[in-house]
């Protein structure tokens, strides 16, 4: 007689190990070790890169604002027929 390969949700949950803090603590230890391996930027690099990001945000904002204004004028002229 063949066994049923399909299991019920209760059977799956019953075989799952109970959650433990040990696994979570090991995970956090692993995260800490990986963060030690990371190469962090110096203060000067961080400031320079932040300035670049802020400048790019401003440029993209002005660009999007200009396109929005131009398209707004064009759409209002088309629909108002002035």
Strand content: under 5%
**Termini separation (Å)?**
85 Å
Helicity range of the residues? over 70%
The total count of helices amounts to: 3
Question: What is the succession of H and E elements?
Answer: HHH
Characterize this entry briefly.
This protein has 82 residues and is mainly alpha-helical.
Topology:
Elements: H1 9-15, H2 21-37, H3 43-80
Question: Could you explain the architecture of this structure?
Answer:
By secondary structure, the protein is mostly helical. It is 76% helix and 0% strand. The protein is built from three helices and no strands. It has helices at residues 9-15, 21-37, 43-80. The longest helix has 38 residues, at 43-80. The chain is flat, with a radius of gyration of 29 Å. It starts with 8 loop residues before the first helix and ends with a helix. The model has no long low-confidence stretch (mean pLDDT 87).
């Amino acid at each position: 007689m063949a066994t049923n390969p399909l299991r019920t949700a209760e059977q799956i949950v019953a075989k799952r190990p109970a959650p433990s803090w040990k696994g979570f603590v090991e995970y956090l230890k692993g995260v800490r070790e990986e963060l030690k391996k990371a190469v962090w930027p110096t203060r000067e690099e961080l400031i320079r890169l932040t300035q670049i990001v802020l400048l790019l945000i401003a440029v993209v904002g002005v660009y999007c604002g200009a396109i929005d204004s131009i398209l707004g004028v064009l759409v209002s002229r088309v629909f108002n027929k002035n």
